């Protein structure tokens, strides 16, 4: 059985990866501090802050995984503008540490990246389109891709966008913010001018498992099935969950005064992953229905 080491296993995608690879692979979960209580004892766990080069080297040498999936990152896009050093340490230096440590046993490194490496002038984007990140988060993630490429190990770079879903003690994501606000009957403002193809954490994790099952290397875009703006996403969610769509006011991005610039027409073309390893994310309606059951 292949050994899979997952970093950032306490995060939204990390938890979905642990669930999805479990049973079929020997899974080793790692996280910066601890796993949520409900996950402890369900999976082999080791503490790992990926910005600690020595710890990365020692742990990877000890565990000798066949595949390392790096789902750890500093994911606060606006925070990355203010805390550039923190962002660089986790999102670039951490990735370089994993790549260098993986070289010893030539483990496959699967690195998560983002559509924020593109400027959003002309999305959705294909794997060969030219990156031009607008903000520091996107710049750092692009640098992380390059760090993986230059070390001389087998690698897969998975670019994704707007991962959503639920998990144990996970940070707020766009879906959870909408769900909690609408459920509480709060009025919210959602932008109509940011486009992408949001993907459920479980569908993304399954796509990554398909890639690992078939030992595919290179760059792949794994987004969701539908390309839409965030307002449309919010309205669809409200309809499936039975919340009032009147609570959702359409606005434009400029009104939010966010610190980091956002790509407007972002998103990712997923045809290459579909053709190469059968990646097939579910339609939004069916994802919302399954999340509705889970959140009951
Ligand atoms: N979420 C999205 O919409 C989105 C879109 C495109 C790409 N991505 C990429 O997809 C990947 C997974 O994202 P996600 O949504 O699952 O993020 P998440 O829920 O924020 O999880 C990230 C995890 O990384 C951990 N982490 C942060 N710094 C670390 C370090 N130095 N060492 C070890 N762990 C560290 C965090 O732990 P603490 O909480 O303890 O800090 C957290 O558990 C990331 O690479 C992200 O950049 C995400």
What keyword list fits this structure?
alpha/beta, two-stranded parallel ribbon, 10 helices, binds NADP nicotinamide-adenine-dinucleotide phosphate, Rossmann fold, 296 residues, globular, single chain, 39% helix, seven-stranded parallel β-sheet
**What is the level 1 CATH name?**
Alpha Beta
CATH architecture: 3-Layer(aba) Sandwich
Count of individual helical segments: 10
Total domain count: 1
Largest sheet: 7 strands, parallel
Spatial strand order of the main sheet: 3-2-1-4-5-6-11
In CATH terms, what is the fold-level topology?
Rossmann fold
Assembly category: single chain
Proportion of strand residues: 15-25%
Supply the CATH superfamily name: NAD(P)-binding Rossmann-like Domain
Which ligands does the model contain, each kind named once? NADP nicotinamide-adenine-dinucleotide phosphate
Q: Span from first to last CA? A: 35 Å
- Detail the poorly predicted runs: none
Helix content: 25-40%
Helix/strand structural class: alpha/beta
Number of strands: 13
The average pLDDT value, as a whole number, equals 97
How would you spell out the order of helices and strands? Answer: EHEEHEHHEHEEHEEEHEEHEHH
Radius of gyration: 18 Å
Question: What topology does this entry show?
Answer:
Blueprint: E1 3-7, H1 12-21, E2 26-31, E3 44-47, H2 53-63, E4 67-70, H3 77-82, H4 84-103, E5 108-114, H5 136-150, E6 155-160, E7 163-164, H6 174-183, E8 188-191, E9 195-196, E10 199-200, H7 201-213, E11 218-221, E12 228-229, H8 230-241, E13 248-251, H9 271-277, H10 284-295
Parallel strand pairs: 1-2, 1-4, 2-3, 4-5, 5-6, 6-11, 7-10, 8-13
Antiparallel strand pairs: 9-12
């Amino acid at each position: 059985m292949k050994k899979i080491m997952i970093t950032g296993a306490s995060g939204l995608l990390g938890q979905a990866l642990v669930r999805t690879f479990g049973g079929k692979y020997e899974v080793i979960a790692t996280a910066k501090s601890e796993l949520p209580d409900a996950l402890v004892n369900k999976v082999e766990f080791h503490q790992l802050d990926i910005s600690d080069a020595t710890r990365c080297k020692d742990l990877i040498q000890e565990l000798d995984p066949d595949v390392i999936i790096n789902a750890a990152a500093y994911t606060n896009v606006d925070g990355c503008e203010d805390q550039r050093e923190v962002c660089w340490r986790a999102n670039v230096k951490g990735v370089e540490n994993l790549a260098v440590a993986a070289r010893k046993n030539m483990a496959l490194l699967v690195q998560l990246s983002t559509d924020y490496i593109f400027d959003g002038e002309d999305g959705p984007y294909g794997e060969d389109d030219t990156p031009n990140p607008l903000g520091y988060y996107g710049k750092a993630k692009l640098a992380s891709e390059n760090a993986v490429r230059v070390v001389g190990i087998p690698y897969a770079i998975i670019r994704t966008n707007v991962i959503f879903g639920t998990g144990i003690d996970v940070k707020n994501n766009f879906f959870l913010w909408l769900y909690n606000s609408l459920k509480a009957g709060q009025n919210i403002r959602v932008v109509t001018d940011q486009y992408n193809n949001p993907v459920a954490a479980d569908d993304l994790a399954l796509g990554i498992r398909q890639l690992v099952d078939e030992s595919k290397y290179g760059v792949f875009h794994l987004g969701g099935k539908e390309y839409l703006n965030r307002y449309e996403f919010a309205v669809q969610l409200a309809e499936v969950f039975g919340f009032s769509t009147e609570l959702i006011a359409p606005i434009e991005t400029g009104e939010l005064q966010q610190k980091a610039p956002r790509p407007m027409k972002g998103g990712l073309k997923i045809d290459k992953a579909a053709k190469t390893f059968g990646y097939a994310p579910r339609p939004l309606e069916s994802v919302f229905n399954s999340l509705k059951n889970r959140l009951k």
